[in-house]
């Protein structure tokens, strides 16, 4: 029996929507979040520089991203001088959620095209590391406007408990492209496969560095985008991704190893307090971990275990309580923000 013209039109519309990768009622699928307090500049902010921060937005980590934003604003002496640059595969889906929680926030949402990494991603030890948006940090210099000369990149599973202006003030002179906390006690060789180390050519890429290559976590980075663009670093990272995909399996950990191959030994060191990472445990089990010794300016739940998932499951780790006060997820009958602080 032939379809009526109306049903035929609806069928065509649905077919077009799904073939384009749309999801019906996408906005309704996102959780509801509370509005955060308005944070204002304190005395002495008239001459404060604009601090550019980059983060990603997706449905899985949106709750973490918004918690991170709230933590940054709450501890900043000049919160109105912070400009957020978000990357998302579907900006129009996430812009309303950010605006609703932070009506006065200075921000833009830029589209990250997954096609940029199509054919360059290989499977890793954890599925989350294989998502295209995990590689968006590689393309910040290409996506953000040329007027953005420097940016702090933050992962979506962290909270800042210090004034981010202190991290922004990191000195990248004379010619550093990237600054991050380094962990030279870590076994650097373990981040690459035996196939990499046995190759007659690949390890030579780590020679002639300023210092011996050390591990650093790419969830917290201060990046000079002008030097990045001038040095063609996006293409250098892509080249290693193509080696991994087409020539030999040289690593297992998503977007991290290409950064190590390009920048390890050339990174401007930052105090460890700015990335107390690993609070999500390892990439397999995500077991609870303690803080590293020393002061703390940033808590980072890198690894499999995310605080919002463990809290929702009723099986939180002790340190997850430090993330909970920044959670903007709306719950019926519980809208008193910072009540638990």
UniProtKB/TrEMBL annotation:
<dbReference type="InterPro" id="IPR029044">
    <property type="entry name" value="Nucleotide-diphossugar_trans"/>
</dbReference>
<dbReference type="InterPro" id="IPR050748">
    <property type="entry name" value="Glycosyltrans_8_dom-fam"/>
</dbReference>
<keyword id="KW-0735">Signal-anchor</keyword>
<keyword id="KW-0472">Membrane</keyword>
<comment type="pathway">
    <text>Glycan metabolism; pectin biosynthesis.</text>
</comment>
<protein>
    <recommendedName>
        <fullName>Hexosyltransferase</fullName>
        <ecNumber>2.4.1.-</ecNumber>
    </recommendedName>
</protein>
<dbReference type="GO" id="GO:0016757">
    <property type="term" value="F:glycosyltransferase activity"/>
</dbReference>
<feature type="signal peptide">
    <location>
        <begin position="1"/>
        <end position="28"/>
    </location>
</feature>
<dbReference type="Pfam" id="PF01501">
    <property type="entry name" value="Glyco_transf_8"/>
</dbReference>
<keyword id="KW-0328">Glycosyltransferase</keyword>
<keyword id="KW-0812">Transmembrane</keyword>
<keyword id="KW-0325">Glycoprotein</keyword>
<dbReference type="InterPro" id="IPR002495">
    <property type="entry name" value="Glyco_trans_8"/>
</dbReference>
<keyword id="KW-0808">Transferase</keyword>
<keyword id="KW-0732">Signal</keyword>
<comment type="similarity">
    <text>Belongs to the glycosyltransferase 8 family.</text>
</comment>
<dbReference type="GO" id="GO:0005794">
    <property type="term" value="C:Golgi apparatus"/>
</dbReference>
<keyword id="KW-1133">Transmembrane helix</keyword>
């Amino acid at each position: 029996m032939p379809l009526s013209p109306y049903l035929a039109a609806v069928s065509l519309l649905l077919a077009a929507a799904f073939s384009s990768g749309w999801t019906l009622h996408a906005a309704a699928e996102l959780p509801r979040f509370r509005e955060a307090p308005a944070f204002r500049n304190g005395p002495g902010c008239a001459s404060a520089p604009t601090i550019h921060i980059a983060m990603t937005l997706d449905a899985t980590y949106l709750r973490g991203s918004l918690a991170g934003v709230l933590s940054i604003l709450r501890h900043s002496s000049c919160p109105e001088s912070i400009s957020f640059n978000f990357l998302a595969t579907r900006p129009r889906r996430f812009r309303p959620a950010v605006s609703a929680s932070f009506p006065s926030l200075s921000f833009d949402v830029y589209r990250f095209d997954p096609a940029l990494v199509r054919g360059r991603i290989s499977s890793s030890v954890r599925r989350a590391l294989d998502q295209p948006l995990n590689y968006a940090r590689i393309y910040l210099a290409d996506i953000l406007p040329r007027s953005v000369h420097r940016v702090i990149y933050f992962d979506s599973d962290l909270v800042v408990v210090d004034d981010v202006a202190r991290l922004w003030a990191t000195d990248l002179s004379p010619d550093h492209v990237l600054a991050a906390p380094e962990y030279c006690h870590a076994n650097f060789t373990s981040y690459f496969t035996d196939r990499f180390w046995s190759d007659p050519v690949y390890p030579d890429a780590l020679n002639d560095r300023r210092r011996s290559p050390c591990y650093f976590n790419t969830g917290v980075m201060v990046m000079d985008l002008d030097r990045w663009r001038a040095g063609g670093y996006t293409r250098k990272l892509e080249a290693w991704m193509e080696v991994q995909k087409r020539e030999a399996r040289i690593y297992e950990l998503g977007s991290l190893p290409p950064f190590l191959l390009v920048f390890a030994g050339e990174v401007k060191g930052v105090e460890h307090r700015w990335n107390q990472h690993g609070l999500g445990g390892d990439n397999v089990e995500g077991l609870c971990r303690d803080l590293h010794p020393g002061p703390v300016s940033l808590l980072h739940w890198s690894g499999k275990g995310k605080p919002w998932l463990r809290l929702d499951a009723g099986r939180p780790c002790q340190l997850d309580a430090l993330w909970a006060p920044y959670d903007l997820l709306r719950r019926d009958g519980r809208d008193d923000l910072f009540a638990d602080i």
